[in-house]
Amino acid sequence: MITKYCKKLNAGWIFLIFVFFLYIIFIFINISLVFKSLNTFFQLFYRLLPVLLLVFVLIYLFNFLDPKIINKYLIRNMGVRKHLIVAFLGILSLGPIYMWYPLLADTKEKGLNDGLIATFLYARAIKLPLLPLMISYFSLKITMIITLLIFVFSFINGFLVNLVMKGSSLIGEIKNV
Amino acid sequence: MEGARNARQGWMASELEGVMAKYKRALSKTKNSFIQTIPFIIGTLLLISLFNNVVNKQEIVRIFSGNVLTDSFIGSFIGSIMSGNPLISYIIGGELLTSDVGLIPIVAFLTAWVTVGVVQLPAECKILGKKFAVTRNSFSFISSIAIAVLTYFILTIL
Fold this sequence. Notes:
The structure holds two protein chains of two kinds. Chain A is mainly alpha-helical. Chain A has two domains: 2-52, no CATH class; 65-176, no CATH class. Chain A has helices at 2-8, 11-29, 31-62, 67-74, 81-92, 101-109, 114-123, 131-176. Chain A is elongated. Chain B is mainly alpha-helical. Chain B contains seven helices and no strands.
């Protein structure tokens, strides 16, 4: 019965219930600590609220982008420019990473190499809708440096992954010969 | 004349329907994302608030030795094994920064959170191949350390 209810609830709500239980336990241990913590929570929440609203408005705007369109561009052959386009598509892609695995496996069958898939997955670390939140916590300067470095490292990762994967397939071919 | 007008009106109606369907789809996706994320945000903020009042800030800082490589390794390791919406990682990282934890482990933590997926590794292995998944995640782990160290050096230069 409990398992049935747990399945209906998503992990987030289970996590929140767990935290509530933790607070209830602390009521019996040190009630003043609970009030102090709740006070800190409301301070943090009010500080974050405007940024969070902006984040969800940006997520809404980015949700207009159809994953099928991204997939269409991923399999298009554009030479060297493709690396750049794949990285930008990675930045634009939203949603959990595992949602993209089947789509990427599909593009792999249609000719996208391992390096480009790695570039796409790494560039996903740049979350445009979350930039306001990052700036509010870490300043514009730090946000810009981290974002730029992630963008550069998406190509380095793509190159290295491709090198290893190609190398291993070459070793396999030599062994077969 | 009448036929052309009707055809134009029909085309406009179908275009409008298409746009409205896009708006509705985007709204529904955002609503789902909000419903899934909000309990994590509230839960994380409640945990951080409790944590800040229970644990001494100096004890958190003590975990990090001040060594660039060791600190970035610890940050990357924690970020790699944790999973979830990156929004949560920014909140945790931001609050750690206010607790006087250095920027290096925090940058490594944030980068590893979004680039390394230990939790998703079985799924990635199954769908994209074991060798690819292990290679990609290993390079991503090393990259998160490199990004943290580079961020530190760039900031000292600027």
